[in-house]
């Protein structure tokens, strides 16, 4: 990947204008948000939100299914487990011999 660089100057209000070549390369349009961070060597890193999101997705790994499917399946398992332990209306809770203690 070819890295682009350019020069810019802060205006009197502290604003920085990114060179058009960089904006085009990053796919930035007026109103888009960017993340600016200071690197350990003192340099600044400008990252589009889209690039930041893709980086996070890459860290999570690829998914062959939706995380919502996992959540729904987990909830169904919980509901089934709760259902087997739940007391139905008009029914007395069952108590095992090991849970009853005399005083």
Walk me through the structure.
The chain has 103 residues and is α+β, with helices and mostly antiparallel strands. It has one domain: Pemi-like Protein 1, Chain: D, CATH 2.10.260.10. It contains 3 helices and 2 strands. The protein has helices spanning 20-26, 49-60, 67-85, and strands at 34-38, 44-48. The longest helix is centred in the last third of the chain and has 19 residues, at 67-85. The model has no long low-confidence stretch (mean pLDDT 75).
In short:
Helices cover 37% and strands 10% of the residues. The chain is an alpha+beta fold and 103 residues long.
Properties at a glance:
103 residues, elongated, Pemi-like Protein 1, Chain: D, alpha+beta
Compile the SSE list and pairings.
Elements: H1 20-26, E1 34-38, E2 44-48, H2 49-60, H3 67-85
Antiparallel strand pairs: 1-2
Largest sheet report: 2 strands, antiparallel
Give the beta-strand count: 2
Class, according to the CATH hierarchy? Mainly Beta
The coarse overall form would be elongated
* Sequence stretches where pLDDT stays below 50 over 5 or more residues: none
Major sheet: arrangement of strands: 1-2
The arrangement of helices and strands along the chain is HEEHH
Percentage of β-strand residues:
5-15%
């Amino acid at each position: 990947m070819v890295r682009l660089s350019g020069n810019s100057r802060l205006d009197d209000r502290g604003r920085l204008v990114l060179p058009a070549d960089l904006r085009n390369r990053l796919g930035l349009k007026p109103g888009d948000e960017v993340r600016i961070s200071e690197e350990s060597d003192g340099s600044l890193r400008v990252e589009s939100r889209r690039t930041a999101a893709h980086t996070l997705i890459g860290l999570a790994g690829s998914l062959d299914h939706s995380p919502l499917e996992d959540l729904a399946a987990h909830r169904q398992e919980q509901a089934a487990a709760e259902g087997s332990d739940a007391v139905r209306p008009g029914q007395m809770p069952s108590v095992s011999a090991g849970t009853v203690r005399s005083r």
